[in-house]
Q: What sequence folds into this?
């Protein structure tokens, strides 16, 4: 029996996992994300909606862009299989342009410890 994933058990390991989404090799995106997200995973952020395959393609495109993402978890709450997290991030594009955001994330953790779904609200931060 495979071991249960534990990255969503603490703010520190969850933050590290979120950071890893943007730093891996584009060729390894599906393999990397399979360790984090369940096969039935779905993601919603406003008008953006992805199933697992669509989310893999989305992250692969971001990895190909070679973004620099600095992400810090500010609040983290885990209650059974439900998770709530707020993080701030600064993304630096290849052009040098910087974008800052605050993200409010709600998620459900599957029995095996991987993420079953995520719903996010992202606010751009000026300055």
A:
């Amino acid at each position: 029996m495979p071991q249960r994933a534990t990255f969503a058990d603490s703010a520190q390991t969850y933050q590290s996992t979120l950071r890893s989404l943007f730093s891996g090799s584009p060729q390894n995106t599906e393999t990397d994300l399979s360790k984090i997200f369940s096969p039935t995973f779905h993601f919603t952020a406003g008008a953006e909606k992805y199933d697992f395959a669509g989310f893999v393609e989305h992250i692969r495109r971001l990895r190909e862009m070679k973004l620099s993402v600095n992400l810090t978890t500010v609040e983290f709450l885990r209650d059974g299989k439900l998770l709530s997290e707020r993080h701030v991030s600064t993304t630096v594009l290849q052009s040098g342009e910087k974008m800052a955001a605050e993200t409010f994330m709600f998620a459900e953790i599957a029995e095996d410890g991987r993420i079953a779904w995520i719903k996010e609200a992202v606010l751009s931060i000026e300055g």
In short: The longest strand covers residues 68-79. The chain has one domain: 7-125.
